[in-house]
Amino acid sequence: MTWIILILAGLLEVAWAVGLKYTDGFSKPLPTVLTLGAMAGSVAMLGLALRTLPLGTAYAIWTGIGTVGTVIFGIVVLNEPASALRVGCIAMIIGGIVGLKLSTV
Predict the structure, then answer these.
(1) Within a 10 A sphere around the Cβ of 88, how many other Cβ atoms?
(2) What residue intervals traverse the membrane (predicted)?
(3) Is the pTM of this model over 0.70?
């Protein structure tokens, strides 16, 4: 269950990172409220996961999910470049996430 909570926390991190783009400097009320809610939920769920997972592992996976998800959103939705180097770097981050998961008992 802890890993599911951590994955959900990472997905909420993607949501708030993407949400920041749509708040227009926190001048749009609805995107701002949704973004702040996603921030709070993401950090709260990370805190729950930290009850049983090592800090370094949980934080790295949380930020890794956020990073990969945000880059993928940028590529798919915002038409940001998907160069071979960029995709390779994303693959390395995913490899690191998987490695940390496999190394945590």
Answers:
(1) 9
(2) 33-50, 57-78, 84-102
(3) yes
User: DSSP secondary structure string, 6-25?
Assistant: HHHHHHHHHHHHHHHHHTTT
What is the helix (H) or strand (E) element at residue 72, kind and residue range? helix 55-76
Residue matched to tokens 């400097």:
25
54 secondary structure, DSSP code: -
Per-residue tokens: 99: 């490695």
pLDDT tens per residue, range 49-72:
999 999 999 999 999 999 999 999
Compute the C-alpha angle 75/61/26, nearest 5°. 55
DSSP count for the chain of H helices, then E strands: 4, 0
